[in-house]
## 1
Amino acid sequence: MSAAAPVVRGTHFFRGTRIVVVGNLVGALVAFCYFSFISPPHREMDGPGLLASAIFFVVGFAAISAVGAWLSLRATAPAITSDLDLDDPAVRRAALAFPFRIATISAAGWAIAGVIWGVVWPAMTGTLSLGHSLRMVVGLTLISGSITTAFTFFAVERRWRALLPYYFPRGDLSAVAGVPRLAVRMRLLAIFGLVGVLPLVLMATLAVARSHRLVGADPATADRILHDMVLAIAFLLAVGVLTAVGLALFVSRSVAVPLRDVEIAMERVGRGDLETRAPVVSNDEIGAVAEGFNRMVDGLRERERIRETFGKYVSPEVRDEILAAGSLRGGQIREVTILFSDLRDFTPWVESHPADEVVRDLNDYFTLMEGAIRAHGGLVLQFIGDEIEAVFGAPVADPRHADHAVAAALEMCRRLEDWNETRRAAGATMLRHGIGIHTGEVLAASIGSPERLSYALVGDPVNLASRMQGLTKEVGGVVLVSGDTVRRLRDPGELEALPAVRVKGRLAEVEVYRAA
């Protein structure tokens, strides 16, 4: 965690404390209005004087606030201390349960307030009655307490969500056990109950109670009862609208903002940014969606890493074919042009030079030759000692595979000449090679065991291409091309026809052309 994290935690906790204070003041205001306009107990019974009531209110409120603050500190201490172990389950639970604990303490405070002002204070003043106690408990605990608790929870949760990434850098909120989970459905049901059901129940109760009082009442009393009913309905309407708007904003943001973050992350991934992550700020269904999205991106990132690593061992063409659908395992019959290249006097060179120098020069040679082959659409199938086997026309079809193979062979010769000039200036040994080219139909497939595969060509044309490379030592020339390849060339260029030769494994003679 960064050094600024303790400061950030302290700032958010301070803001959370302010939210709790504001929420409880709102609850106190709601309670005051409720007992002033809907259920004023002082109209029905004598009680203590105003001064005594005020003193008891101040003392009781201060006591409840002090106990609430102490409980809040104890309940949230694991999540706000400066020295944290983010792998400690207690810290992770405390961080995730922070809004729940604050809201629970707030709800408990209002429940205690209902008992104190509905039971304890009336008992101390000799005004205790069942109806009075029920009105106080309903007004303080059920109405003011529920509104305050809901406001506190959603407001603290909104602030605290900005801090959760510090505690869960991996976004693994779902891995924390023993923490309450407020599902989106429960959020909506809770808000519906507060802004829809509760006001209707109170209005119905109010209407029934006032209707009973209207029976047998004199005109003046009836006018006062109706006036009080209008005030009560107006109060319930105002509180209901304000509560509905406020809680709706909190709940809508708690759902819309995380979904928007996931949407933004999806757009970034769509643009190819696989380092992006969606913030996971809750352990509900939306948090599960964000976690699932991050796991998907991790999988894509791992696939891309494997793809890039795989491409260092096989060509990108073969890599993409295998990763896309694995179609190569079944094999494909293709007409291709095969190229074999082999260094001359390789064994004496190896014996007369240090091994590290041989490996270095071989890697440089292979790099130059593969570059020439790839520049013309060819694919290097394998390096065997000092030999190169390449194919043109597979796995990606190429109608001009023969032309491209001959062009690649000529460029290989030019690159070797240029490299030899550099080697000559450095006093290194000059290198020579022979190249054979042949065209024919082969089976192109992934060959091997289930644990290890290689892309290979199977068929007689492969053997003949290798024989053509061997003929460069016998008939002379650096690049020899078979008659089958020449007949498929769209641009034959300048090729020198040589006498037909017989190669091992073939009864018929093979037409041979020298390209260089």
Note: Residues 181-295 form one domain.
## 2
Amino acid sequence: MRRFLNPAIAIVMLAIPGAVFANVTGTPTLNSGQTLSLDTGTVVSSGGDIQFTGTGISFQGSAAGQNLSPFGLTGASDFTGITTSQSTLTAIATNITSTSITPLTTNQIIAYQTNGGNTGALLLTAVSSSAITFQFVTFVSTTPVITSVLNNYGLVPAGFSNSGISPGMLFIIKGSHLASATSVSSLQSTTGGAMLPTLLNGATVKVTVGSTSVSPAFYYAENVQLALVLPSNTPLGAGTVTVTYNGQPSNAFPVQVTASAFGFAASSGTGSGQAHAQDLSYGYYSYNRSIPPGSTIRLIGSGLGGDPTRDLQYVQPSAASAINALAHVYVGSVEASIFYQGPEGYPGVDEVDLTIPANAPTGCNVSLVGVTASGASTNFLTLPIGNGVCEDPGLGTTGNTITAPSGQTSYSVGSVDLIQSTVPTTGGGTQTTQTAEADFFSVSGITIPTSSSSSSSIGTLSLGGCIVVQSGLTSTGTVPTSTVTTTGLNAGTITVTGPAGMATLVPLSTIDPGFAGTAGIYATLDKSGNSTLPASFIPTSGGTFQFQGTGGTIAPSVGPFTTQVVFSTPLLTWTNQAQDATVTRSAGLPITWAGGSDGTYVVISGSSIATALSAYGFFTCLAPVAAHQFTVPSYVLGALPAGTGSLIVENETVPQTFTATGIDFGYAIGLLSYEINATYK
């Protein structure tokens, strides 16, 4: 069985009343290129918290920091005041968000959070281009702290209708000091009659619902994460989870135990993206080996419901083992026939076998979601459907273009966009703006979709389907940001020419101090942030617009390029906009439009935030423009929290790819966007 060890997605507060702390202190000198663990005070080759780059401090992994000088905290006296009081440091910990700090100066104080989840502060006492010297104090907690409890596969956070844990489920507990940090447990075997243990790496877990407590069995136990199987006799209802390590109990973390809360496994182990899909001979499907319509496939996950025979050990399933928790599975909004759903054999692991409908849409990212009889959805994933290498001809993507950067530690992307955007204003009216933009970046890391921009639909969703992204809010009540790391590329002078004439895109680094020293971002904006394009640059009759770049002369750079964007005649209009401002999540949401040219597509997206539940949801659906209507399914809307947010309808032109030296992939797109405020009930 493959192990999915899921990474943390948000910085959390770890100061818990009653926690026991042991200070780690030191006065190290860190040379350029060296990495230090702030939890141990030692220079390490990997797994450290900070690296001195010669010009600044770069935080590694999930560690983060914050320069306290802008808050008026500098020098030895302020440092002593902060580091002698854990509560003082905790009070400013919500500002610990930076992944790098530069420039560095003597007497500068930096608050930080380590990869181990501990808080601390350092005082720079000497700074040069070759080394820095500093004092530091890290408050290392020895008390277990739980920050989240999730389905191991679906990873839907608390606050959503499809969240929670269920009897027989494989679930994870995330936090800090949950088990030994120096001893890493191996994945526990359940073959040959072996049973999962209820004590592992010094940790035990108790789940309590009402007056009943049960002890889940472990797959593995690590300092920041545990994986366990919830006993099938666990009562349903509101309960708590507690971890005990070295005789110290954690906080009692609230959970909801439901009869079923299924989540599909993703290939990435992140709960989103491409599904972990196999044929019945256990061969894997991928972008380069897509699923022919009519095929029967094997999916795995967890949360269909309890099965006491498999709580602790492997038992071969049979047809009689079925647990029919899912009433429907939709592939690209077309219902698929479920061949089998029930235990896979290993404790906590379920299997869903289904036949891809003959009329299912084809593409590289056809949406996949399961729905219960009550309307609750699973997590949303995608499948590559077609023959051989998958293909989305209307979107300009194929399996080859998607996997081109595979195996690289980074890849470079260029995009040019011509945008007409209509958004609501604070006075109740609307404002329409036309802008041209260009971005050239070298990218490393994984981007978590958090933006309402439909540009995120390129390469992530095929026509005819919908996906939903669900996340909790950060400790400050905001949506978690992307973990992607980017380096701007110089593209020289970029112009766009259309029916109304030519305009020049300027580097944002020349007009906004916030972008000083940053290459790669260009736009038709002035220093006040207003577009320099005339209001009629994109006429209502559309037209052809040509982008040209001279190529950069300052490294890192890209070479010359030419590409174009073609807007339809006439431009698309959203015809039932007023009726869509109130969204009833239990009912489908019809969207209608007029205009737009065949071959383009419409992106329908929306978001909702429920601050009281610490929940944020965002959906995207893609439809061909020729259909002139699309109904967002109730199971998509029901995956969003009730709250306030937005609804957006956009017409995107078919992406035009272009090449240039210095980039792996380039595309040009035209975007017509209408946004309204929306209430989700």
Note: Residues 21-141 form one domain.
